[in-house]
């Protein structure tokens, strides 16, 4: 569309935010692949440029802002070829765009402010490249500078999976164990009651933790595993117990973290 970007602003910038382990990075990568396929008639090739934020920080004063500039220069160099569709993925973007107000009022070095300013300048510079799409993720949206949040065209919260999704994730994980003959033949229809119970007790769990539950359960049952498939019903029942233990541990960690924050605030 031939629209004056000075009158109608579009940065082609997406910010996915939410708790850890909910698949934000995977969604960004999946979206880039989907868009590359849909736009293959317009672009001969597509690139995914992952920015590793930790590599942009330097112990030398003002060097970090220069590293940001060099990184975005490489991105713009790739996008100079109009036949190339460029996707930029910045994971944990809050490390590059932390609130300048908080930095100036606290003990953060002024170099952190320089980095944020550099990122904002580069984001604005990318607007002239219609073949660049930037995707960012964050676990700490409240720590991001308001100017960066304002530049995001789409700000989408990605939370823990709902019950139907949890059930599907757990079912697919146990199916894989059955394929590997770690558990015996698994039939979701026959094990529906146990699956529903398991999906219920894992409310609030991230997709990452749900995928890890079968491993934790097998670790607990490893002493009884003699290369003969474990009964799937027994395995599912044990997973319920492991999920309960994980919930307790998560609660204890959250309480300890809250106490630590309270102590720091005093």
Automatic annotation (TrEMBL):
GO terms for cellular component: chromosome; nucleus. The keyword Nucleotide-binding applies. GO terms for molecular function: ATP binding; ATP hydrolysis activity. Keywords: ATP-binding, Meiosis, Nucleotide-binding. Residues 10-162 form the AAA+ ATPase domain. InterPro entries: AAA+_ATPase, ATPase_AAA_core, ATPase_AAA_CS, P-loop_NTPase, Pch2-like, Pch2_C. The keyword ATP-binding applies. Belongs to the AAA ATPase family. PCH2 subfamily. This is AAA+ ATPase domain-containing protein. It comes from Rhodosorus marinus.
